[in-house]
Amino acid sequence: MNQNIDIRALNEKIQANSEFVSLLMDGMSQTIVGQQHLSEALMIGLLTGGHILLEGVPGLAKTLSIRTLSSLVSADFGRIQFTPDLLPADVIGTMVYSRKDDSFSVRRGPVFANFVLADEINRAPAKVQSALLQAMQERQVTIGEETLPLPHPFLVMATQNPLEQEGTYALPEAQTDRFMLKVIVSYPTIEEEKKILRASMKGDISDKTVMPVVGLDAILKAREMVKEVYVDERIEQYIADIIFATRYPEKYHLEKLRPLIAYGGSPRATISLALAARAVAFLHRRGYVVPDDVRSVAYDVLRHRIGLTYEAEAAEMTPDGIITEILSKVEVP
C-alpha cells in the first residue's frame, strides 16, 4: 500500500461523493421498519457488486427490502420465483425458432437486469441453481452458441427459507461461495413490531410508492471510490489472520476448533472481507478501514464459507460460534 496517501484529501473526496448513501438509507427506512443490518448489507452489495444471500423465516421483509432498494436506484429489476419445476431456460433465456425467418433467435430471461431477485433460491433443483453460476461469476451467460454479457452493474440478491426443508435443495458450496455475504435476517424488536402493526392498519406498507433517488452513474462512481479506500498493512494482516484462523486454528491458540472445522475460508473470502470492510468505511464516509469495519462484516462474509464436521454438529456448534471464537483470539491491530 502507498504509505504517502493523503488520508484527509481522501476523506473529503469520499464525503463529497457519498451523499446519496443517506438518501438510500432514508428511502429504505420509509418502507422497512428496523432491519438496519439488512439495509446496510444490501448497501454493501450495491457498493461492491458482491452478491447477497438472505436467510430468514417468512415475513421478515427480505423480498420487500430488495424491491425497495431496486426502486430507489434507477435501474432494471428482474425477479425470479424459484420453484421445483423451474428450468434453466426460465432463468437465463432460450433459443426461439421463427417460422417466418426460418431461424433461431435468443429470447433473454429475467437474469438480464441490473438487479436480480432470486426468491427462495433453494426451492429449485441444482441444474437451475447452476444456471446462475456463470452469470454470478463471469457476468455473462451462454445461450446456444452465443455468449451474451449481462448489464453493468449486475447484482444477484437471493433469499432462502430455513424452514420447510422438505422438497428444497441445499445450495452446494460452489454456489454459496459466489455470494459475498450471507445475511441472517432476525425478528424485529417488540417496538418495531408495534410500528409494523400500526403501519399495516393504516395501509402505509402496501400503498407506499418508492421513487428513484439515485442513478446508475452515481453507483458506478461510488464503486470506484470504494476501491480507493485505504487499507493499512496492519489491517491487511488482521484480515489474513482471521481467514487463516478458519483454516489452521491451532496456529492461533484455537486447538479446540481443529476437530470442528472441515474446511475454512478460500482466498475469495479474503477478498470479500477486505472489500466489504472498505464498503463499510465508505458508508461511514471514511477514507480508511479500521478493525471494527472488518469485525462488523466478518460474520456475513464467513458464515457460509466455514464447513462443519460431524463433531461440530453433534456439539451444536454453528459457524457463527466459530467466528466468535476466532475474533476473540486473533490479535486486533
Helix and strand topology:
Elements: H1 7-17, H2 19-31, H3 36-48, E1 51-55, H4 62-72, E2 73-74, E3 77-81, H5 88-92, E4 93-98, E5 103-108, E6 115-119, H6 126-129, H7 131-138, E7 140-143, E8 146-149, E9 155-160, H8 173-176, E10 179-184, H9 190-202, E11 214-215, H10 216-228, H11 233-247, E12 261-263, H12 267-283, H13 291-302, E13 307-308, H14 310-314, H15 319-329
Parallel strand pairs: 1-9, 1-10, 2-11, 3-6, 6-9
Antiparallel strand pairs: 4-5, 7-8, 12-13
Compact summary:
By secondary structure, this protein is an alpha/beta fold.
Give the termini distance in whole angstroms: 16 Å
Strand order of the largest sheet: 3-6-9-1-10
Main CATH class of the largest domain = Alpha Beta
Helix segment tally: 15
The oligomeric state of the chains shown is: single chain
Report the order of strands and helices: HHHEHEEHEEEHHEEEHEHEHHEHHEHH
Radius of gyration: 21 Å
Shape: globular
| Biggest β-sheet strands, sense, barrel | 5 strands, parallel
Relative strand content:
15-25%
**Mean of residue pLDDT values:** 85
Number of domains: 2
The name of the CATH topology of the largest domain is Rossmann fold
CATH superfamily label of the largest domain: P-loop containing nucleotide triphosphate hydrolases
Helix fraction? Answer: 40-55%
Number of strands: 13
CATH architecture of the largest domain: 3-Layer(aba) Sandwich
Q: Ranges with pLDDT <50 over ≥5 residues?
A: none
Q: Helix- and strand-based class?
A: alpha/beta
